[in-house]
Each structure stands twice: as C-alpha cells, then as structure tokens.
Amino acid sequence: MTWQERLTRLEAFLHRFPWLLPAISFAGGWLGFIMVQRGANAAQIIAMLAIVGWLWLLIEPLLRRRLERSRPGIGNLFVNFISQSLQQELLFFSLPLIIGAMQIDVGQIVFATLVGAAALVTTLDPIYERYIATRAARRLLFHAYCSWIAALVVLPIVVGLPLEKALPLSLAAVGAWVLLTMPLSWKSLQTGKQKAIWLAALVLSPLLVWALRGHVPAAGLAVTQAHITRSIDELTPGPSVTTLSSSELANGVVAFAAIRAPTGLAQSVVFEWRHGEYSERITEEIHGGSRDGWRTYSRKQVFPEASGGRWTVEVLTPQGQLLKRMGFTVIPTSP
After folding, report:
1. 151 and 17 fall within a common domain
2. How far apart are CA 2 and CA 189, in angstroms?
C-alpha cells in the first residue's frame, strides 16, 4: 500500500468520524490542565505533543511547495489535510487551558470565545475549505493565529517561560514567520483592495493584540485560594473579611493568594490595590510545582485619608492579565 493510499484511507476515516480528533485533542487539553493544576511533570509531556503540531505549521509552506513540485495535486491535498488536522489538535488542546485560566472579565471571555470559534471552524469542512484553505493569504494568517495560540499556551508549560516573556516572544516568532511567507500570500491576492486589507491586518493585528494583552487569559496559572484578611502567620492567612472600619486600617490589610503554576516556572505577579482614582501596585514572585499553589500575599498599611468605600485588589501578571479579583469595603468610623 502506497503512502497516498494510506493518506486517502486516513482522510476517509476522519471524514467518517469528524468528531474524533477534536474530542481527543480537547480531552488532551483538559488532561494537561489537570496535570498543571496538580503540579505534575506529565503536563510537559502532553504539551510537547502540541509543540510538534506547532512546528509543522511553521514549516508547512516550505513542504507544500516541495510536494507540489514533486507530486502536483497530491502534495496540496496532503498538506491541507495534515494542516487542518493539526490546527484542530492545537486549538482544541489549548482551549481547556484558556478556559481554565479565564476570569469573569469581558475581554477574557471574548478571547476564549474567539479561540473556540476558530477551533469549531476547523471541524466544518465546507466553511474551512471555502474561506480558509483556498487562498494562501487567508490560510497563512489562520496558520499564524493557530501558531500564536499554541505558543502562548505551551511555552510556559514546556520551557517554564514567564507569561510576560511568552507573549512578546510568541508574537515575534509568528510575525517573523508571516514576513517570510509574505511572497506566497501576496501572490494569491488578486486585487488592490485585497492587498490593502491584508497589509492592514498584518500591521494592526499584532499591535491590537499587544494593546489588549491584559485581556488574554493567563493559561497555565490558576488561583486556588484568595481572600482579604487582617492577619497572616507564616503564610497562613487569618479569617476572611469583607468589611473594615477606618480605625482598623491602622493595623494593615492583607490580600492573600495561592497560585498554581507549571513545574519549573518562576513568575512575577502584581497585587494592584484600587480605590476610585487611587492605585498602588506591589510585586511578588511565585514558583511552579506546588500542588496546593504557591502562597503569597500583599500587605498594605498606609492608606489615603479618604479611604471609605469600596476597595478592589486584583492579582495580575506583569503585563496586566487578570488572575483574581478580590474586594472589601471600608466603613468610615464615626467621630
């Protein structure tokens, strides 16, 4: 049996059971999420499988050209089939990790929804083949999106790269790849309008992502405990409080959080205290591998004179990704 016949049989099998690959990838993503939550090294092995798919997407244009030269027709069919399957694998693997890190934040919900929509598109052959696979420019931009999502999710897990480095590095890597494949994309665009839209998307997309980076869920990190308290003893917080009197502020307020992270990851987190226009940021560092989460806290002892009302404490990554939001209310003390 030739490799073309094997490919045809595999393609027919997946068309017969179109739910199989997405289901396996989605299950793999949840398994990876659970392993990260437990601080298990197995999460790195699972994430390595996603790296294989990521590497394929990076070399896909080169392989496509070579196969088309040696085997016209079959080369394009082969590469389209493999690329679509790997895009399914990458997106459905990444989706649970993104959902697991998502907070009640409009931007993060929109981001997760877009990833879910892209994953769904890869399973709908009529839509995928009509709107993505037929034009090199669309196909390569979609490749870039899938590659960026995969890099954003797996780099912190596999190599322990802090999230504030993973985002710019993934954008830079994908941007370089898009520039290298620009001749292929440009050649497939037939009108000046199409070229103008493509160029605008090429320039504005990374700028938009960077401007909205705070709304990207911090995949791989999860807050297991978080509350406001008045005391802490050797990283064991006191009772949770939701209201305080102005006189009680003199003894200080503690924002406590336990954060799970992948094994080997050293990551800065920021506690941002907010009250109206007032804002103060306090940076701490966490380390991955702890099953119950790395315990850390921020103690605030100096408060402005007008401290009455609602206070919010957000636990963020250095680039502004929301991990947890806590709050308490200060009741002015009567004179």
Report:
1. yes
2. 35
